[in-house]
Design brief:
With 224 residues, the protein is mainly beta. It is 2% helix and 24% strand. The strands form 4 sheets. The chain has a 9-stranded parallel beta sheet, with no helix packed on it. It has a 4-stranded parallel beta sheet with strand order 5-7-9-11. The protein has a 3-stranded parallel beta sheet with strand order 13-15-17, with no helix packed on it.
Length: 224
């Protein structure tokens, strides 16, 4: 049903269906997400981006291990992000950006072996970056920008050898940039701007030969 002018709420009868795909993107839906959308444990693709959904993520999604791609971005969803989602062995893509989620980033993301994209930008996320994310060996894009994340960048991110995009701008991250970032030789886009990083810019960034965008502005770098 994506790319229409549909509005109103989702009928409760939708919970009676056993779906493998549900795409409602780019409409004008309001109210809440379907309560039992993962009925039968069959749901693989769940897309509801760019609507006006509110409330929390349905509990049925927490244990929906069949999920492959999830797009919830561009709504008015809320809730504790660390409690709303579980561990997904088949998940390759999830976009939770531009909502009102809060809480801390769960270390469970490091237990999703096929995860290629994780985007939680433009929410109200707090806490630090869990070092367990470094276990997501297939991760290609990580966007945690425009939140309230604090602390230092864990050196374990240097293990993400497949990473092509790393965006941490607009948080409250501190400390020095770990030299391990220089081992992410597949990086094409790197944005650490608008944080509180200090010390000097590590020369290991010179190893990133595929990089075409580097954002380091609005920090507290000194020395060389």
């Amino acid at each position: 049903l994506l790319y229409n002018n549909l509005s109103g709420s989702i009928p409760p009868s939708l919970d009676n269906l056993v779906l493998t795909k549900l795409s409602l993107d780019f409409n004008h839906f309001t109210s809440y997400l379907p309560h039992n959308v993962c009925r039968g444990g069959a749901l693989q693709y769940f897309r509801v981006s760019e609507n006006h959904f509110q409330g929390t993520i349905p509990k049925s999604l927490r244990n929906c291990t069949s999920l492959i791609r999830v797009r919830l971005n561009g709504n008015n969803l809320t809730g504790n992000i660390s409690e709303a989602l579980g561990i997904y062995p088949n998940l390759t893509f999830i976009d939770l950006s531009r909502n009102n989620f809060y809480g801390e980033i769960s270390f469970n993301w490091g237990k999703c072996p096929k995860l290629g994209t994780l985007n939680v930008s433009m929410n109200n996320i707090t806490g630090g970056i869990p070092r367990e994310i470094g276990n997501s060996s297939q991760l290609q894009a990580l966007d945690l920008s425009l939140n309230h994340i604090v602390g230092e960048i864990p050196k374990e991110l240097g293990k993400l050898n497949s990473l092509t995009k790393l965006i941490l701008r607009g948080n409250q991250l501190t400390g020095r940039l770990p030299t391990e970032i220089g081992s992410l030789i597949e990086l094409e886009y790197l944005d650490f701007s608008a944080n509180r990083f200090n010390n000097s810019v590590p020369e290991s960034l010179g190893n990133l030969l595929k990089l075409h965008y580097l954002g380091l502005s609005n920090n507290q770098f000194v020395q060389e």
